[in-house]
Design brief:
Strand content: 5-15%
Strand order of the largest sheet: 2-3-1-4-5
Number of helices: 20
Helix content: 55-70%
Mean pLDDT: 89
Structural class: alpha+beta
Number of domains: 3
Largest sheet: 5 strands, antiparallel
Radius of gyration: 25 Å
């Protein structure tokens, strides 16, 4: 399913990524992983079997090792943002839901705990084991209820649904239902149990599309209830963050007519990314990238810069070049001192986001992150963004290429996951959910810039990718190209 060159590329990238990962410890575990990654990991092979075994050792105690590392006061301490990303990714991979982790993080924030306490709390969380949850999925319409639904043990009649809700402390008033199902599901948290129930419901609705009569007739109530959880969970899952804001900001959301273009086709292909089932979302998301950023003249062969993988690199370059402007623009609007200062007045007087971004960049170069007075509601995340921009502006070319490299890994993983689904028929791969979780916001950012360039300049996506690739090499050089202008046309 994956070529040897694809596996080798991923293996070499992984060797670079694990360097600052304190969860791997300092001795035997890290040494063993580095030794294994020096060899091809073909399947089957002794190295592949050993890697599979050692992953179990990495997972157990991973956050405990982070906590121990954070207690050591030396120059090896990692940046808080790296620690937070790594911790969140590990807990998500263990099976905790994002909604539950947000609540956990808010509690820690209210308690004003430090990094060590956060790591210890996360390590304790990681030791949690799944427990059974009782979940109610109610249906408004139930085709074939008498012969197909009522014989099932977990079916509840309309009266049974009302009784279950009351027994579990929920108000059944206003709920119109023809019955429902009560599932007993093992999960780490109530939101995870609701997500499992949501997936069961999706399968049920998909099956109903194949009925001859009442096609697509299964209609769910737009909420899910979990016993012991005080509030119903919305049926619609949280969006995965693939936002194309240019459609709104530039007034193109409703400007559709009989003419179809590549942009329209790509947006339709990627529509499942935000809330669709995992496999169709991955397949559609990558199809959108491929439809825009692949050309018949691209290099052939099995090298990593050949074939369709080159589209991932092109999208990564576009995203990397869009990132500084997006961060700087957000910071410009978040700078909010109690008494308006020169920067505040200059930003208020600016007529374009480009101008506002340049003003913030100049302020950060002159005075560092302290130049900004950020709003209280988003202060922590904005402060991290300001620190990122200070580092970027101090060394634009190296920082941008590091960022582009990280984006390239994410987009290529999306591509490889899609290949495993469509060519290998493996619809439940271990990297499926993580690949989409990482790639969805990046895909949205890339599509946003492609849409913007198409509507404002009539610029082909391949030409935008070429502009981005050139910008990554010329930024902060003799041409005077600045970080706020990476995707702007040469004037």
């Amino acid at each position: 399913m994956l070529t040897a060159s694809a596996c080798d590329w991923q293996r070499n990238e992984l060797r670079a990524l694990i360097g600052p990962d304190q969860g791997l410890g300092d001795r035997e575990l890290r040494k063993e992983i580095n030794l294994l990654l020096q060899h091809p990991l073909t399947d089957p092979s002794p190295e592949r079997r050993r890697l599979k075994e050692i992953i179990g050792h990495v997972r157990v105690g991973y956050l405990d090792r982070w906590a121990r590392a954070l207690k050591v006061e030396d120059d090896k301490r990692v940046k808080p943002e790296r620690f937070s990303r790594t911790t969140a990714a590990h807990l998500l991979d263990l099976g905790f839901s994002a909604s539950y982790l947000k609540g956990w993080a808010r509690t820690l924030n209210r308690e004003r705990v430090g990094a060590v306490e956060i790591a210890e709390s996360a390590a304790e969380l990681a030791r949690t084991r799944p427990r059974p949850h009782e979940v109610l999925v109610a249906l408004e319409k139930v085709p074939g209820r008498h012969e197909l639904a009522e014989p099932l043990d977990h079916w509840r009649s309309k009266g049974g649904v009302v009784t279950w809700l009351r027994e579990n402390g929920h108000d059944p008033s206003g709920i119109r239902t023809g019955g429902g199902f009560v599932y007993r599901l093992d999960a780490l948290d109530p939101y995870g149990a609701a997500e499992q129930a949501r997936q069961l419901l999706d399968r049920m609705v998909a099956r109903s599309q194949y009925l001859r009569a009442h096609r697509g007739g299964v209609v769910p109530v737009p909420r899910i209830w979990v016993a012991g959880h005080p509030h119903p969970v919305p049926l619609s899952p949280p969006a995965r963050g693939a936002d194309v804001l240019s459609l709104v900001h530039e007034g193109h959301l409703y400007k559709v007519d009989s003419r179809r273009g590549r942009i329209d086709d790509a947006l339709e292909l990627a529509a499942a990314v935000n809330r669709g089932a995992l496999a169709p979302a991955v397949a559609g998301g990558w199809a959108a990238v491929e439809s825009l950023l692949v050309h018949a003249d691209d290099p052939k062969g099995d090298g990593e810069r050949s074939g369709k993988a080159i589209a991932a690199d092109r999208m990564a370059a576009i995203i990397a070049c869009s990132w500084p402007r997006a961060e700087l623009t957000t910071l410009a609007h978040r700078h909010n001192p109690s008494e308006p200062d020169d920067l505040y007045r200059a930003v208020a007087a600016s007529t374009t986001n480009r101008e506002a971004a340049r003003l913030v960049a100049d302020a950060l170069v002159a005075a560092g992150a302290e130049a900004l007075v950020l709003t209280r509601a988003t202060g922590y995340s904005d402060q991290a963004a300001a620190q990122r921009m200070v580092g970027l502006l101090a060394s634009p070319r190296s920082q941008l290429n590091e960022v582009a490299k990280a984006f390239r890994v994410a987009m290529r993983r999306l591509y490889r996951t899609r290949n495993i689904i469509l060519h290998g028929g493996a619809t439940h791969g271990v990297a499926l959910e993580a690949s989409l979780r990482t790639a969805a916001p990046l895909l949205g950012a890339g599509l946003d810039r492609i849409v913007h360039a198409s509507y404002t300049e009539d610029l082909d996506p391949l030409d935008l990718a070429a502009r981005a690739e050139v910008a990554l090499q010329l930024v902060h050089g003799e041409t005077g190209l600045t970080t706020a202008d990476l995707l702007e046309p040469v004037r």
